[in-house]
DNA sequence: GCTGCTTGCCAC
DNA sequence: AAACGTGGCAAGCAGC
């Protein structure tokens, strides 16, 4: 059986440093019907090379993996799944496609300890001068081995020539580790109990209906809604129809959004909101979704949900997902995420990760002090900055997202006074964005430049004959981009911390394996992980998760005294986690 | 029938 | 009543 713990056994786990000093890279490049493997020594000289057919590749990789090389290949997502299917895993890789995407626009800006995160001008002054083979790449099949080696060398030079090669190297390593983890998580899948899911749906919607018909509960609600609105033919799923019907019933709604309707006093509102809630559940995670995305159980295991994780899929460096909507797994159906018999889920999420990251990257000692406890928001209350935890959260998120109005806007002066370094940091990033400049994360991922249209609008507004509407539009647009760059630096750095956390965790989990199996990552979402673990190993897993978080903090921010608090629980099903 | 846009809602 | 960042996705709907 293909256990998640199918890793090649190693005698010398847990002391990688010494071994990394003797780093050997093995280049994997398509060649004819198979691949060409080229072993490089530390001076990047070729020491061995050979062709291998695709069907023999997994065996060859497994054999070579004993020496713990770093696999250098163009695209983990294209190659690694096949190795995984053959039961072969690797410890380290360098993903040329992902690293290229980072380096392509990296700016060799001057950085200092105080403002290393901050914006640096020079649009277009990326490390590499022009497009390379990877820019036109749609498939890796046509790249010859020499071109792969050339790209690798280029990237090494780019890193070496940057002003923070250490940070960039860490980012590329983390990004590449993420690519391995993403493929492994897709391969292993998230344990899923189809019966629990079906019961949950039936309890809320009624039993599974024939294809193409509404479940009983939804049909009932639709009838009630039609009666209240005197609209016998109304399809509640059509916003346009619904809006017309609401209006003829005397309800002055602008849209049919739930938060707008929630304030309306009318007997149709309650059943309508209930309809929306259930309809969403049905269309997003109902029986069709179940049939499409859950692989049925086999020999003693539960079913599995296998979403595609897309490392680097979000501009900020967060992962995207594709298929099954794994980015928004509703709380309502998390009870269907159930560990296999004899196994547990260890669920961990980083508490208030973005404020903590902001404290570290801005070197704000005051905010770092607030990070010492488990609840940073509560610390703001205890420090007397705000009066309630809710206010602390609103104020902090407002600062990170660029809120100017409402409660967040009102609380902002207090935050400015209490944490000048942290608030300044995000303000600087926002100002840079408003000017159309590039900003960078702590490890050096750079924000995209605004579009040509954006610049045109700004240009038009600065003409002497500019209309007030032009100027208003330009100001609006500049602020929009400023909010984006403001959030970019923090969200992106938090994503870097999370990548390091996972990479460190993955390494530690391999050391926990025993005969029952290897605890392994089965889910990741921005600041949260789920590890599927044999029940008797969960204590070690919890410790590994905490250790990994501390290591990640150290890797990024050295000795700066910021804490990365976690909420960690061991449960049978995901809904039991807070 | 296909494609792309809009609306609305889920997650962090 | 969206304000305030990043995404994916389903259904409706207009246009080809």
For the biggest β-sheet, the strand order reads 3-2-1-4-5
Total E-strand runs: 14
User: In what range is the share of β-strand residues?
Assistant: 5-15%
The biggest beta sheet, please? 5 strands, mixed
Shape descriptor = globular
CATH class term of the domain at 1-104 and 128-161 = Alpha Beta
Structural class, from helix and strand content? alpha+beta
Quaternary structure annotation: single chain
Instruction: Name the poorly predicted regions.
Output: 1-20, 109-141
- The total count of helices amounts to 21
Cα-to-Cα separation, first versus last residue: 34 Å
Briefly note the CATH topology name of the domain at 1-104 and 128-161: Nucleotidyltransferase, domain 5
Which architecture of the domain at 1-104 and 128-161 does the CATH hierarchy give at level 2? 2-Layer Sandwich
CA gyration radius, whole angstroms? 26 Å
Helicity range: 40-55%
Mean pLDDT metric: 88
Tell me about this structure.
With 578 residues, the protein is of the alpha+beta class. Among the domains are: 1-104 and 128-161, Nucleotidyltransferase, domain 5, CATH 3.30.420; 197-288, no CATH class; 354-483, DNA polymerase, domain 1 (Orthogonal Bundle), CATH 1.10.150. It is 47% helix and 12% strand. It has a five-stranded mixed beta sheet. Strands 12-13-11-14 form a four-stranded antiparallel beta sheet. Strands 6-8-7 form a three-stranded antiparallel beta sheet. Strand 1 (25-31) and strand 2 form a beta hairpin. The longest helix is centred in the last third of the chain and has 43 residues, at 468-510. 42% of the residues are buried. It binds a DNA duplex (12 and 16 nucleotides) through residues 235, 237-241, 254-260, 263, 276-277, 280, 283-285, 313-316, 318-332, 349, 353-354, 397-398, 400-406, 408-409, 483-484, 486-488, 490-491, 525-528.
